[in-house]
Amino acid sequence: MQPKKISTRVGRGCVTLIAVVLLAGCTVARLGYEMLPWFALWQLERHLSLDSAQRGLASDRLDSLHAWHRQTQMPRYATLIEAAVSRLDAPLTAGDLGAWRAQMFALWQAPAERIAPDLADLALTLRPAQIDRLERRLSDSTADLRRKYLGGSADERLEARIERWQERMEWLLGDLTAAQRAELRRLASAQPSDEAAWLDERQARNERLVRLARRIAKERPPREQAIAWSTALLEGFWQSEDPERARRLAANAENGDRVAAAMLNTASRSQREHMRAKLGDIERDVLRMISRATRP
After folding, report:
1. Is the pLDDT of residue 177 over 60?
2. Mutual orientation of helices 109-123 and 223-235 as an angle, nearest 10°?
């Protein structure tokens, strides 16, 4: 997936609006940061069939959330990117990449707390038929992903996995040499398949979301209680409740870090310059987004 616009590059690291986080996954990266409120509202409409009052509530909250994120969270992304760029001339380890990933996940805490009241307020307006629609949409989406990533033979799935790795590396480094492609194939082939684990986790997250929506719709708790439940869901959104699956996901992430670090350390001088330019572009885009928050 190669970015086409400035805002699209920023979108890779800024998936924080309600519908994006809960419904859309990485699809938002194709549309861009400036389009997030529109895209999030479209996803909510698609999954819930909002009435006019709900649509107005969601639109206002998404615009406010987007402005908050630009002003308060984008500087934190800029700091992380700046730190990453400063390390490009030194060898990278899997531990370095794991630490950066952990820092990115740590940035989720503030958006989770900020999103929770909006999620609760919308959930308090939902009707049972809307929650049924949400459940069907999420189930259909997961089924589509299972067909895409788990269909075909083991050899076909491996080839697709290698192709995804190559696309990521070439986006960051530019064209790979024949030797690098061979090494990437060797490394990726040695890693266990991870598609089933993250698809199972995605399904579990969706089920937690639907359970929360049904609970709020059935019990109609005070707003403060609905916010507390929503906060608990969002704060643990990226943490598996299944210990064995959590172990598999952690192992998969560490395996991916090892592959990525090994490949990045094969980069030639020109490829490192390509990587520096890519990350520099993202850093400038983030700073541009921040500057817009200060304009009258």
Report:
1. yes
2. 140
253 phi, psi to nearest 5 deg:
-65, -40
Domain-embedded: residue 18: yes
Residue that the structure tokens 């690291």 belong to: 13
Q: Each residue of 220-269: pLDDT tens digit?
A: 999 999 999 999 999 999 999 999 999 999 999 999 999 999 999 999 99
Which pTM value belongs to this model?
0.84
Annotate 183-218 with DSSP letters as a single string. HHHHHHHHSPP-HHHHHHHHHHHHHHHHHHHHHHHH
229 located within any domain: yes
Residues 66, 76: Cα–Cα separation, whole Å: 15
| Cα 146 to Cα 132: distance, rounded to the nearest angstrom | 21
**Average pLDDT for residues 98-126, to the nearest whole number?**
94
Asked if 185 and 158 touch (Cβ cutoff 8 Å), the reply is: no
Within 10 Å of residue 45's Cβ, how many Cβ atoms? 14
* Residue-number span of the structural domain to which 261 is assigned: 6-293
Q: In this structure, is residue 47 part of a structural domain?
A: yes
Residue 1 lies in a domain: no
- How many structural domains are present in the chain? 1
Using alpha carbons, select from 166, 205, 215 the residue that is nearest to residue 1: 166
State the Cα–Cα distance between residues 50 and 54, nearest whole angstrom: 6
